[in-house]
Protein 1
Amino acid sequence: MTNSQLKRVVVTGLGAITPLGNTLNEYWEGLASGRNGIDFITHFDASQHRCRFAGEVKGFDPLDYVDRKEAQRMDRFAQFGVAASLQTIADAQLVINELNADLVGVIIGTGIGGLKILEEQQEIYLNRGPSRCSPFMIPMMIANMAAGLTAIHTGAKGPNSCTVTACAAGSHAIGDAFRLVQRGYAKAMICGGTEAAITPLGVGGFAAARALSTRNDDPKTASRPFDKDRDGFVMGEGAGVLLLEELEHALDRGAKIYAEMVGYGMTCDAYHMTAPVPDGRGATRAMELALADGGIPPEQVSYINAHGTSTEANDVTETRAIKKALGEHAYNIVISSTKSMTGHLLGGSGGIEAVATALAIANDRVPPTINLANPDPQCDLDYVPKTSRPLEIDVALSNSFGFGGHNVTLAFRKYR
């Protein structure tokens, strides 16, 4: 397919369930004000865990979106995904009916899926025997169910899939959806990521891998990307969903447009199960591919929403990759990690961070990296410390990197 045959793709709807709030406006207000969504874990007794805090979603009621029977048959990750998707459709004012249902699809990624139901049913199995296991355990647990249930609750009958690529899953979902709209396989795609892994096993497993911060005496300052005193990431939960729509389709129905999506790059380090390749070449190439895909010279980039996990390896590696991908212009752009406020949503992170990137473009304001008090000398770029900043944003990138060496960069620009 030639470039002239490719469709322009725009963002016309957004939805967010996050540690900063359960609506789009609450999420953006939290980001713009530098609010901290991290605190001690309340989902379970974490007193025996190495890490006892996380970015929990607070006050979420699935009954605001689905009836009680449906809610009871969904794991929390699927509840988040469906809720954020319904928000997105409402925000976009898109009516899905028999006339257009085949042209609207869904891709929602997750890194882990239904961990909560798996833990609960394992305990039932061990204590009461296999005959007492729920017949809904498997459909509640499997990772594709957020995408499947979103289709059921929205009526979208077009392309439907689920990406499961660890912390890159949400961004892969958005990138794959972009390709489907760009190439004419769908008129609109509901896409993003969701995760709900703040469970005893989830927190225990990441802590055992020495991936999590153990700043239990001061959890509010534990997520500190690019800071010399960082000691690991902080788990978060929630979902971020976008509606990507063919431009002409959006214009025909008078849709509002947050931004245009113009590029998608994905690579693999092929190096290590959990560590990034130290020179950052996989992440570099993902950014270069996204820029080339959108026909964007590096000097047009205004902002990067960094993966920025607050881990020793990621933050230095990502800084190196940005410098290699953008050259000297890396010192002229602004970069921030919204994980400093939300924690790391694993497979949901690419979703809420793409939402944040689109909102930054629409509002010409860059969210901050809070808790950046003592910058790592190896991280010497402008990370927008502590407070948000007004900035006219032309092009913005959103980076996501996952265990297994997955690297994704999404490129957005102001719609003109």
Note: The chain has a mean pLDDT of 97.
Protein 2
Amino acid sequence: MTSLLIKCWFGLANLPYLFYRMLSSTIAIVLTLLLMAVARERRQVTLTNLRLCFPEAGPFQRWGWCAAHMYFYLRTFLDRGWLWQGNANTVRRRVRLVNPEALRVLAGGQNTIFLAPHFLGLDAAWSRLCLEVDMVTMYSNQKNPVLNDLILKGRSQLGQPLLLSRQQGIRPLIAAMKQGRPLYYLPDMDFGERDSVFVDFFGNKAATVTAVARLAKMMKAQVIPVLTRYRQGRYEVTIGEPLANFPLDDETASTQAMNHHIERWVRDNITQYLWLHKRFKTRPPGESRIY
């Protein structure tokens, strides 16, 4: 069944662009209405996250954000059908680097971490940047082996990227960075207490990995944000300026500073941040469960 769904998914992506966009948007709208009605757990996770992070917003606004978020989640998920087929011309047309000149910062040879928070278009940014530079990233294995293979193959289609599983540890990642590969790193998921600290995220304690701070200090790496926005059928990827005065001397302070940067970027694009994720699942000692 999974293989059949994948064939339909990729077949949809091969339709002429205008027809594909119209049909995929319609599918995303229908599925959004269905999920808002029946996917109670995911809906409640999203609404809970929005309530915790934006207590000043009213319930109707949060419900609107929730519905928009689910639409963008589904819309960008469908777009992976063309992102993962390895057509460089299609990716260049549909994923625009807003400021490609910013990549000149790589010419100096300094180790680089591309900081990519979980905006829904992060796969589009990865595929587009792979056309410009050979990167390294880490991934988490999926429970479904067919889906896991699909993701790995799809994310390896363009350029010559190196994808490492978290089970491989940090040594091969460090070796790749020493060879000149920028690290494309997703810093803002709850992986539990291991290698994490509890720092604020929109005023709520969130288990946050310290890897960015540790690697930046160890490798003397510049940390450059990569922000992606879906807009009218296409994606816009903005490469930010290297974070100033980062990392700090203290890992916890550095990780807190990183979260404050992410908060600012999220406020500019609330509905396209990954609110479906249980960001506050791991709690500090003594605190009750949220979800």
Note: The mean pLDDT is 95.
